[in-house]
Amino acid sequence: MDVIVAPRPSAHPRTLARHRIGATRGATAVATAGAALVIAVWWDAAPPALGRGAGLMDAGRLVGFLAGYVAVLQLLLRARLGVIERTLGTDAINTAHRILGCYLLALILSHASLITAGYAASGRTSLGSQLRSLLTDYPYVLWAVIAAGLLIGVGLTSVPRVRHLMPYEVWHGAHLAVYLALALSFFHQIADGEHFRHTAWLRTSWIVVWIGVAVMLLWSRWLRPVVLALRHRLVVAEVRRDTPRTVTIAIAGRRLDRFPATAGQYFRWRFLTARRWHVAHPYSLSAEPDGHRLRITATTTGRYSCELPDLPVGIRVVAEGPCGGLIATRRWRGPVLLIAGGVGITPIRTLFATVPSNSLTLIYRGHSTDDMPLSEDLDDIAERRHADVHYLVGSRNDPTNALSAQRLATLCPDVHHAQVYICGSASFVRYVHASLAALGVCDRHIRTESFELA
Ligand SMILES: Cc1cc2nc3c(=O)[nH]c(=O)nc-3n(C[C@H](O)[C@H](O)[C@H](O)COP(=O)(O)OP(=O)(O)OC[C@H]3O[C@@H](n4cnc5c(N)ncnc54)[C@H](O)[C@@H]3O)c2cc1C
Q1: Three state DSSP letters for the chain
Q2: Which of 47, 252, 331, 351 is least buried, going by the fewest C-beta atoms within 10 A?
Q3: Residues 311 and 343 occupy one common structural domain
């Protein structure tokens, strides 16, 4: 075991943001093309407003249509669709979700302001009395206002400073109000959208799109986990302490050779105990699926996870997924560098065992060996695959031997030509990514997953 002391990561968050923006470039192009299509369709379908305030009304209607489009994108990002999960990966999905959330609120507020101002100008009335008239005389406008209020409330709970004031379950529960808000807004769009009232095919298409997305969400978030649980009859088969602060849980079931799991991905696991059946937590597979058992490894230092070591064997399990894009790049056969921070080793361990490579290096950093499970597995895999493993154990505050560009190049001389996979806390991933960027490693060759709240 090559033990090196490592310091606290401290790269600037913008570095990761740049990387994430790079990772979402293709999706951004698709989303932008979709927005252009929405504008073109609206231009063709909506009759232009006339008279005073016409420009404001037209702008308000277009912005409202765009808000509906962004809402669809948000739902798709959260639908855990295999193609989106695998292509974008969790980090890019979370970033896109946050950015689109801001756009959505801005579009909704602009829509409300422009429409109210436009109608007020048209009717030569005050903004206040126009707003009252919109609420009482138009169908579903009140519903839309309630929806906007809910979305703004959810947006506020997602501001990091506010979010950290509440337990995850409260934040997550508040987030579910988004579905109610979007359902309310749907009726407003269909009933009041000028472009829908005048163009039947557009109205029908929009209804089909929304129903299609709702069905996808319902299937992948709620029905599919139940189907998987019934089909595979997942149960806890073994609970084993790995280190004083981590536990490994083996999950058995029927026909697991058909269970849709890929090395590097994660599921949201729900253990059906009397106390915790209502919560699902994301944990990556810590062993490659072998058709007989699934395995996860978790730290046990949190409010929920401290109870994991006491999970009774035989308890039923529901798994939502697979999620995430930290999977082996197809066709890559060159050098591979895997970098894990703490329990970020879980998906990295499965890649270490499976990723095709002609030169394989793993760097595993942790504060103490108590936070570094799976090292026995890693040593076995390293021997079998003739790979290098470097354990970097030490205090965050020790300034020597950072995972700096220089250190990375020393530990993995192939780093410039390697496909790199990183997993750990968000700050760890940021720091390592900054070092790789300094070495000139191209974003295309870096895949990351941060274990952070989504
Ligand atoms: C994609 C992904 C993969 C992960 N894989 C692993 C893994 O393989 N092994 C591992 O040990 N950890 C993993 N985690 C982290 C793990 O899910 C959280 O640390 C754990 O759910 C927190 O529960 P707790 O009881 O330990 O902490 P708590 O004390 O309950 O909460 C601590 C913090 O954890 C976050 N959190 C709490 N509940 C949830 C939840 N249901 N979903 C998401 N975040 C939550 C919140 O930010 C909260 O502030 C992963 C996280 C993500 C996002």
Answers
A1: CCEECCCCCCCCHHHHHHHHHHHCHHHHHHHHHHHHHHHHHHHHHCCCCCCCCHHHHHHHHHHHHHHHHHHHHHHHHCCCCHHHHHHHHHHHHHHHHHHHHHHHHHHHHHHHHHHHHHHHHHHCCCHHHHHHHHHHHCCCHHHHHHHHHHHHHHHHHCCHHHHCCCCHHHHHHHHCHHHHHHHHHHHHHHHHCHHHHHCHHHHHHHHHHHHHHHHHHHHHHHHHHHHHHHHHCCEEEEEEEEECCEEEEEEECCCHHHCCCCCCCEEEEEECCCCCCCCCEEEEECCCCCCCEEEEEEECCCCCHHHHHHCCCCCEEEEEEEECCCCCCCCCCCEEEEEEEHHHHHHHHHHHHHCCCCEEEEEEEECCHHHCCCHHHHHHHHHHHCCEEEEEECCCCCCCCCCCHHHHHHHCCCHHHCEEEEEECHHHHHHHHHHHHHCCCCHHHEEEEECCCC
A2: 331
A3: no
